[in-house]
Amino acid sequence: MPAVDNITLFERLSAAQRLVWVDSLAAAVADIIDDMGEEYDDDIVRTLLDIKRMLQVMREDLAMIDDPRNRAIIGYVQDIIRAMRTCVGREIVGPAFH
Predict the structure, then answer these.
(1) 77 contacts: CB under 8 Å, gap ≥ 6
(2) 17 by DSSP, 3-state: which?
(3) pTM for the full model?
(4) Which of 44, 49, 63, 77 is the most buried (most CB within 10 A)?
(5) CA–centroid distance for 5 within its chain
(6) For 22-71, how does the pLDDT look when each residue is reduced to its tens digit (9 = 90+)?
(7) Cα radius of gyration rounded to whole Å, the chain
């Protein structure tokens, strides 16, 4: 059976499940900042803080209306989290919908 990409999975979720997913991504970004912030320069930490804030705003948007751009951003953020955790040998944290 072929793998389903995260955006397709995201589209299948209920509104409440989408909010949980966005919350999980924001928590993962916060964990990266807390756990590994000292390993990154100030620009990377500021960018991660911006991403976390963006996810918080997106969560508010998702609570009101579904926007296709939000789905694309979810994929990008998940890729960033995965890449940063892979660099230090840690797995991505967040909901699994496999």
Answers:
(1) 25, 29, 51, 54, 55
(2) helix
(3) 0.61
(4) 77
(5) 14
(6) 888 888 888 888 887 788 788 888 888 888 888 888 888 776 776 677 77
(7) 14
